[in-house]
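Input structure tokens:
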């Protein structure tokens, strides 16, 4: 069961789900943002593969939230183009209104980029966890023109709307079928879990997706992170090699990286979720 949180930020209605901890409570609430093209149900994927339930069971409150413009958080008509930094502002303001207490920001894939923006600009979290997410970009997903924006954050910010409409045709684009399951990288461990990943697919927040793909597009925020960071990477994940992940976050107070064996990009759809949650709890407990 969960409690529905809701507020209106600058004319945008935002909601999230609050799942209360069971038993003795830890000092942190985990605030979770999904990756591009996935709803926040990713964090409660399946009874046996639920980040929410596992973290509740060891004492953490958990909040899950859809990105503004996707799934349960649709934008009003005639809303101006939503840049990622504005999305981050809306989310931070919503969290301030909900006044939950001490938070750890948890972002999967594109969600990790938004968590980074929130933390760098508003210091909302005590620490952050980036799951299948880093600042190294996805060069293989870019065309030659898009690659000219690598490590040019000001130029990218100026042209982001044009780039998004050229690549995707709209701000929020529906991925037709979701993960195919043809490879470990983009599917789940079983056909049932892959089907569930398809079921929870939603609109892709295209501006956020593109920003997370272009290396250096949010480098100023990456350098501003001075808290502890927990990283998790599947051994069949997307993005840069795992040994390069931590090097971008030069001002973090400390970093912890775990590698999830026999795991693709959708971490919670694999048996390694157990190791991930145990490792996360050990790291978060050291912050208290």
């Amino acid at each position: 069961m969960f409690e529905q949180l809701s507020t209106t930020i600058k004319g945008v209605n935002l909601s999230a789900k609050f799942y209360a901890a069971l038993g003795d409570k830890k000092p942190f609430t985990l605030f979770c943002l999904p990756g591009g093209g996935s709803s926040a149900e990713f964090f409660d994927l399946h009874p046996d593969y639920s980040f929410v339930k596992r973290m509740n069971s060891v004492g953490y409150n958990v909040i899950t939230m859809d990105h503004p413009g996707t799934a349960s958080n649709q934008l009003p008509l005639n809303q101006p183009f939503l840049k990622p930094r504005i999305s981050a502002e809306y989310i931070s303001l919503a969290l301030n209104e909900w006044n939950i207490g001490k938070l750890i920001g948890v972002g999967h894939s594109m969600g990790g980029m938004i968590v980074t923006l929130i933390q760098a600009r508003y210091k909302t979290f005590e620490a952050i966890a980036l799951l299948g997410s880093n600042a190294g970009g996805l060069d293989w997903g870019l065309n030659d023109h898009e690659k000219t924006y690598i490590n040019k954050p000001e130029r990218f910010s100026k042209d982001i709307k044009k780039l998004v409409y050229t690549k995707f045709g709209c701000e929020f684009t529906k991925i037709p079928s979701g993960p195919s399951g043809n490879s470990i990288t983009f599917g789940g461990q079983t056909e049932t879990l892959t089907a569930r990943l398809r079921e929870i697919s939603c609109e892709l927040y295209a501006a956020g997706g593109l920003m997370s793909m272009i290396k250096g597009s949010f480098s100023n925020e990456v350098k501003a992170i001075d808290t502890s960071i927990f990283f998790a990477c599947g051994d069949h994940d997307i993005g840069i090699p795992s040994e390069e992940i931590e090097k971008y976050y030069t001002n973090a107070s400390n970093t912890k990286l775990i590698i999830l064996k026999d795991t693709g990009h959708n971490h919670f759809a694999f048996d390694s979720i157990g190791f991930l949650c145990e490792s996360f709890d050990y790291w978060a407990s050291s912050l208290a």
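The radius of gyration is 17 Å. The chain has a mean pLDDT of 96.
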